[in-house]
Amino acid sequence: MKKVTPFLMFNDQLEAAIEFYTTTFPDSKVGKVARTGEDGPIASAEFVVGGQVFLGYNGGPHFAFSPSFSMYVDCVDQAEVDEYWGKLVAAGATPSQCGWITDPFGLSWQIVPRRFIELIGDRDPAKVNAVMTAMMTMVKLDVAALQSAYDEA
């Protein structure tokens, strides 16, 4: 385990969350698991999602996630954006805006194509503003539309 590890408190959905995360993202696995009783539900666990180690705990209903903490998914291209977005939606996630989506466990995700980061890194403020303005109108990020906004600025 690393010196600093994200610790996520779930509302009694830890086992389902781990199953979804580890089957959705490559380089994921379940580590140590502690159950309530010999055959009881998972109380706490260590798991890896996309190479990142997490600790999770079933904390009950008094703990809830907020968009102030989110998972950022670096997507190589539109196909990868579509893949993860589709898997999240199929699992019951709620799309928001600007590439944000909240999974069925309440955790917010940012599904972001690398090209977006490259475009907003341009030195031309007019091009950056055009890309940001286009992004603000989107739910799922659309690489072609972002590129078009950049090219037309």
For this entry, give a set of tags:
single chain; 153 residues; alpha/beta; 2,3-Dihydroxybiphenyl 1,2-Dioxygenase, domain 1; 2 domains; four-stranded mixed β-sheet; 5 helices; 8 strands; 35% helix; elongated
How would you portray this structure in words?
The protein is of the alpha/beta class. The protein folds into two domains: 63 residues, 2,3-Dihydroxybiphenyl 1,2-Dioxygenase, domain 1 (Roll); 89 residues, 2,3-Dihydroxybiphenyl 1,2-Dioxygenase, domain 1 (Roll), CATH 3.10.180. 35% of the residues lie in helices and 28% in strands. The chain has five helices and eight strands. The strands form two sheets. Strands 1-4-3-2 form a four-stranded mixed beta sheet, covered by helices on one side. Strands 5-8-7-6 form a four-stranded mixed beta sheet. β6 and β7 form a beta hairpin. The mean pLDDT is 96.
Task: Provide a short characterization of the protein structure.
This protein is α/β, with parallel strands linked by helices and 153 residues long. The chain is built from five helices and eight strands, in the order βαββββαβββααα. The chain is elongated and about 60 Å long.
